[in-house]
Amino acid sequence: MAKPKRSETGISPTRSENYAEWYQQVVRAADLAENSVVRGCMVIKPWGYAIWENMQRVLDGMFKATGHRNAYFPLFIPKNLLEKEAAHVEGFAKECAIVTHHRLIAGPDGGLIPDPDAKLEEPLIVRPTSETIIGASFAQWVHSYRDLPLLINQWANVVRWELRTRLFLRTAEFLWQEGHTAHSSSAEAMEETERMLGVYETFAQNTLAIPVIKGRKTELERFPGAVETYCIEGMMQDRKALQAGTSHFLGQNFAKAAEIKFQSQQETEEYAWTTSWGVSTRLIGALIMTHSDDDGLVLPPCIAPAQVVILPILRDDDTRPKVLAYAEELRRELSALRFGDRAVEVELDARDLRGGEKNWGWIKRGVPLRVEVGPRDVEASAVTYARRDEPAREKHSAGRAQFVAELPALLATMQRSLFDRAVAFRAEHTHPVDGWKDFEAFFTPKNAEQPEIHGGFAMSHWCGAAACEERIREHKITIRCIPLDVPKEQGQCVVCGQPSANRVLCAKSY
Ligand SMILES: [Zn+2]
Whole-model pTM above 0.90? Predict the structure, then answer.
């Protein structure tokens, strides 16, 4: 068998050899993040944080356009607040960090120990999510139907004590936004839940070029304390599902726990109806696993910290000043252009490094366009460029003026091509699967050398019974969601054979 072609970026193994290890290598090669001295917590490095800042900017605009305002609530939640909603506390109790003391003193061995005299009367939980602490504020803010709807978003960090962690995908501390809203009617709260799910879908597809399936979670998969949980699910290149965002209809559960009450128009006292919705730095993991290749990170132009890098070819002292001046002028022209909601971001890399080293360095960081300018380009008033969504050695030539004029259209084409490629990949690995035997076979790897690679998304019938769902879960497969646009179709449950009215999305997942 021929040896697989190695990437010159030094990323090894390839996706098909060992997907999990490839992922870690891509994160490291692109300099996105690293493990910290605190077990389970990551350090997000500048290139990775710049991607998060772009996500924040676009989402924040979408939240404000739908009437929400930002606020900030405490990191700590008094234990009794978390205990007020029974299902909620049960769901999070196993992964909470707890503060019990507020002072350290010298211990018998010289090290610091918590001061027994400084024990908190009531322990504080480091927020795993903020429904309860924000609910306490909402109860103060809401008195009348005139105070509703209350539409708040918070950008924050949260802590969920995970034992097995992976950069961006699962870490003990992560960054996110959490929307929290209160409404005067069930219908209005449900409308809000669906609206924000739609915002996430638009963001994932238009900005991140990640195709997603909108759906409703089963009771077992619901957010602890929610009446309904909606989600968007994407397919990664190892055919596993990744939940990229959730939107919860909380009914009156949290309003009752926190006493969020209002005087209605009919002057009766009623509990509010609330929602919550969130996306996190996990989206960076989804972005990496949807688009990247064996050479490293591939970034869609809409989210890339820089869309273009100019690489001047500085061979000798004679041509050096001319080439540099030309590159600088090109940088100015490109930076004056707009793409989407912002100016085109251009890097000029004039470092004194070998051209190949520089080029591969930007390939693994995922910059959409690499533009080379050398003495010949200067003479011809031209540029040579390469697209990150094409093989690394493929190059194009264009007149400089034409290249500048057509750059926004070229970026839009690349954004579209990454989305279309991901849609085609998902379609290729999504199949209707009937009967338990076929279901098991679908999720069984065909090739022993690639134990991770299985069928993908199975669209299968399910009767709605929790027992059947548990049986599916025993095989490390979950019902990801009941897709919102799934057609009505009579069939038989893939587990028990009982009647089912529609198919559901089953997959292995992150
Ligand atoms: Zn069944």
Answer: yes
Phi and psi, residue 11, nearest 5°: -75, 120
Distance of alpha carbon 286 from the chain centroid: 5
Q: How far is the CA of 445 from the centre of ligand 1 (A)?
A: 25
List of residues 6+ apart from 505 with CB closer than 8 A: 213, 215, 233, 241, 457, 458, 459, 479, 480, 481, 482, 483
The Å distance, Cα 497 to ligand 1 centre, comes to: 6
Distance 494 CA to ligand 1 centre (A): 7
25 has pLDDT over 70: yes
Is 70 exceeded by the pLDDT of residue 5? no
Helices (H) and strands (E) in the chain, counts: 14, 29
Q: Is the pLDDT of residue 168 over 60?
A: yes
Q: Which position has the token pair 């990744």? A: 242
For the segment 97-140, what is each residue's pLDDT rounded down to a tens digit?
Answer: 999 999 999 999 989 999 999 999 999 999 999 999 999 999 99
Q: How far is the CA of 508 from the centre of ligand 1 (A)?
A: 19
How far does the centroid of ligand 1 lie from the alpha carbon of residue 471, in Å? 9
